[in-house]
């Protein structure tokens, strides 16, 4: 089916090969001989989904099953290297980005790629984004919602946004699925994923809007995973905060809701009513297909779920499935 | 048409009077900052109080008249939960605050009803105070924080409290007090309030459902303020989390969406589209009029806002403005 999926996770061949040989990969290693889990950092463990090990051929076969034409692949956020030394961060990003580009080239009509960046060193991140986009042909970068505790409204990140804007690179934001803000409150019931993730997405939307990034970089291309969380539903409260609190107005001249249509949002909101609401709030040209591959079991598939919805028109479905992302990323689909 | 406000706070006159000449009210103190703003000091926390927070009942009634609000279901100022203080101080301040609310209800029974505050750091004392205000003082319930000194309310130690609240028919209103989840990330742009309140209410919904409290107490009455936060919009993802959660003795037998109608929600969601979404998700009989009086995040003209909405039916407006609360609280 004619479609581009902007939200598709993977691990990279060099990373997997290094750890399979029993070696550390930028401080990360398998927890045991079964190689199902990775020690990431600071005692944190991430599970390795078997599909994140797929070769390009295996992945294309699975996409055929799902009816997905193009996946925009990126390395999964838990192995991002923002915590590494700047030198290690740069080395890791270069290796990952070379791998992602090579993986995508194995099936160039089926894959596009997103870089990872050493955000602990803003100058190095700009240089690597330039290399990833202009040399490797990647479409932009996937970024965490927070950088070693710093939020993205910090002035030190503004040169990065300016650079991304001038390159036409797309920034895809995705929080840590497990080790996120929720753990400050509780580790029960999987709330870190079910609530912590969308709260992180919402905080990212807020940081970019209230921080003045969307005002200062009007052509910046940003897409937020999980539909931006419930940012659109809670936008009225953000507007009220802007009206009554001077500290909420330091960087922006208009209410937050004015800027929400400058971002893009994927459809991982997990209910038709919420997707309809998102479209009505941000505009259909800002909503794009994302599947969270391979972690979300869509019924019957990401594209099949969307096509089955009665409250979304066929023209809206086509915009979500491929038209919006063709334009945003400069990809041609064939169907 | 009547209007009953479930979300209207009271900063006790007893606090203002006790601190007038530099004294303390159960260890709470007060200062004026450089701009003349009143600052309440609770332990090591400092919180600004708006001018309306010191208004007398008569001044409050006059403001309610100007807003077209018939009745305030009074709840305490959330900065005075005092869960972090010695339990003896919180017990005393709770009794004092609740006694003042009782006096207001007695003096103006058509204009005020009461929700108490409870010393939740001492569960037995909290149950005793809830019993005092429910059985001898005619309160409708109590307002509590989403967490008690870091603990969520699904911890087993709180189950006797939930059983007692259920048995007494007390409605428990959830409202943040001691910071929110977002404080762990940033203090900028008012986000601990504008996002944090909504995150905390969502966590409360999930913890009460996933922690088995709603199954253990089928008749419990709960109101989640600020429209229940992100609960209704995010319920699809919350359901998916339930599907993937390992079996446990408290894991509910039904998906969390099946529990949405076990809760009530105030209407403080600020936009017509979000209110419509809330009603469509939980039912108009579950949405209650609330204003957040007297804080800056309150609606400017709450009754006229509700009445002006074009996508809410007249019947729904009546349910929200007063009928639901009449039924729920017996007003």
Write a structural description.
The complex is a heterodimer of chains A (335) and B (331). Chain A is an alpha/beta fold and 335 residues long. Helices cover 40% and strands 12% of the residues of chain A. Chain A is built from twelve helices and eleven strands. A five-stranded parallel beta sheet of chain A has the order 7-8-9-10-11. Chain B has 331 residues and is α/β, with parallel strands linked by helices. Chain B has a single domain (4-329), classed as TIM Barrel (Alpha-Beta Barrel), CATH 3.20.20.140. In chain B, helix 3 runs parallel beside helix 4 (123-136) and helix 4 (123-136) runs parallel beside helix 5. Chain B starts with a strand and ends with a helix. At the A-B interface, helix 6, helix 8 and helix 10 of A face helix 6, helix 7, helix 9 and helix 10 of B.
Brief account:
The complex is a heterodimer of chains A (335) and B (331). Chain A contains twelve helices and eleven strands. Chain A is of the alpha/beta class.
- Which CATH class of chain B is shown? Alpha Beta
Give the second-level CATH assignment, the architecture of chain B. Answer: Alpha-Beta Barrel
CATH architecture of chain A: Alpha-Beta Barrel
In N-to-C order, the SSE pattern of chain A is EHEEEHEHEHEHEHHEHHEHEHH
Q: Structural class, from helix and strand content of chain A?
A: alpha/beta
- CATH C-level label of chain A: Alpha Beta
CATH superfamily (homologous) name of chain B = Metal-dependent hydrolases
Residue stretches of chain B low in confidence (pLDDT < 50, at least 5 long) are: none
Share in β-strands of chain B: 15-25%
- Structural class category of chain B: alpha/beta
The major sheet of chain B is characterized as: 8 strands, parallel
Q: Please, what is the average pLDDT of chain A?
A: 97
Greatest interface and its participating residue counts = A-B, 50 and 51 residues
Report how far the terminal alpha carbons of chain B are from each other.
Answer: 15 Å
Radius of gyration of chain B: 19 Å
Counting DSSP E segments of at least 2 residues, the number of strands of chain B comes to 13
Gross morphology of chain B:
globular
Give the helix level of chain A as a range of percent.
40-55%
Query: How many structural domains of chain A?
Result: 1
- Strand portion of chain A, in percent? 5-15%
């Amino acid at each position: 089916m004619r479609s581009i999926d902007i939200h598709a996770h993977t691990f990279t061949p060099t990373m997997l090969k290094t750890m399979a040989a029993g070696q550390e990969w930028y401080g990360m290693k398998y927890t045991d001989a079964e190689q199902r889990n990775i020690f990431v950092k600071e005692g944190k463990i991430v599970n390795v989904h078997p599909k994140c090990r797929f070769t390009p051929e295996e992945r294309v076969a699975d996409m055929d099953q799902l009816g997905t034409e193009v996946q925009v692949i990126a390395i999964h956020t838990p192995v991002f290297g923002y915590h590494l030394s700047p030198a290690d961060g740069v080395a890791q990003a270069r290796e990952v980005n070379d791998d992602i580009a090579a993986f995508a080239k194995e099936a160039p009509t089926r894959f596009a790629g997103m870089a990872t960046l050493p955000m602990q060193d803003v100058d190095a991140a700009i240089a690597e984004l330039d290399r990833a986009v202009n040399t490797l042909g990647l479409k932009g970068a996937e970024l965490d919602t927070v950088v070693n505790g710093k939020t993205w409204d910090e002035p030190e990140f503004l040169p990065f946004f300016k650079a991304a804007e001038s390159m036409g690179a797309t920034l895809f934001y995705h929080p840590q699925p497990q080790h996120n803000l929720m753990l400050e409150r509780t580790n029960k019931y999987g709330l870190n994923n079910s609530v912590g993730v969308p709260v992180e997405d919402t905080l990212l939307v807020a940081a970019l809007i209230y921080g003045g990034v969307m005002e200062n970089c009007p052509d910046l291309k940003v897409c937020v995973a999980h539909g931006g969380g419930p940012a659109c539903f809670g936008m009225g409260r953000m507007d009220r905060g802007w009206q009554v609190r001077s500290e909420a107005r330091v960087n922006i001249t208009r209410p937050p809701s004015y800027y929400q249509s400058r971002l893009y949002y994927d459809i991982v909101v997990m209910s038709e009513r919420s997707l309809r609401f998102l479209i009505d709030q941000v505009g259909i040209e800002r909503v794009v297909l994302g599947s969270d591959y391979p972690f979300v079991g869509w019924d019957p598939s990401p594209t099949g779920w969307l096509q089955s919805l009665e409250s979304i028109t066929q023209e809206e479905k086509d915009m979500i499935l491929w038209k919006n992302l063709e334009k945003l990323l400069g990809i041609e689909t064939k169907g | 048409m009547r209007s009953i406000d479930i979300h209207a706070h009271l900063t006790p006159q007893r606090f203002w009077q006790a601190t007038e000449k530099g004294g303390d009210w159960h260890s709470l103190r007060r200062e004026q900052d450089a701009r003349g703003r009143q600052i309440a000091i609770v332990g090591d926390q400092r919180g600004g109080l708006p001018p309306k927070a010191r208004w007398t009942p008569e001044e409050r009634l006059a403001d309610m008249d100007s807003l077209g609000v018939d009745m305030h279901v009074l709840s305490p100022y959330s900065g005075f939960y005092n869960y972090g203080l010695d339990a003896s101080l919180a017990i005393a301040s709770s009794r004092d605050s609740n006694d003042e609310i009782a006096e207001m209800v007695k003096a103006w029974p058509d204009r005020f009803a009461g929700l108490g505050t409870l010393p939740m750091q001492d569960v037995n004392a909290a149950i005793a105070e809830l019993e005092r205000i429910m059985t001898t003082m005619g309160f409708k319930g109590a307002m509590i924080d989403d967490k008690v000194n870091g603990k969520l309310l699904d911890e087993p130690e709180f189950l006797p409290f939930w059983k007692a609240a259920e048995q007494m028919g007390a409605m428990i209103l959830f409202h943040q007090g001691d910071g929110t989840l977002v404080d762990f990330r940033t203090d900028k742009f008012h986000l601990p309030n504008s996002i944090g309140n909504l995150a905390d209410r969502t966590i409360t919904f999930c913890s009460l459902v996933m922690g088995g409290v709603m199954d253990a107490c089928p008749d419990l009455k709960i109101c989640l303020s600020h429209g229940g936060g992100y609960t209704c919009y995010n319920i699809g993802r919350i359901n998916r989390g339930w599907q993937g959660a390992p079996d446990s003795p408290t894991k509910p037998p039904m998906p969390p969406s099946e529990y949405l109608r076990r809760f009530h929600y105030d209407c403080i969601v600020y936009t017509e589209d979000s209110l419509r979404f809330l009603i469509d998700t939980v039912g108009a009989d579950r949405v209650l009029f609330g204003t957040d009086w007297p804080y800056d995040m309150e609606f400017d003209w709450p009754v006229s806002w509700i009445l002006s909405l074009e996508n809410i039916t007249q019947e729904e407006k009546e349910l929200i403005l007063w009928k639901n609360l009449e039924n729920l609280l017996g007003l």
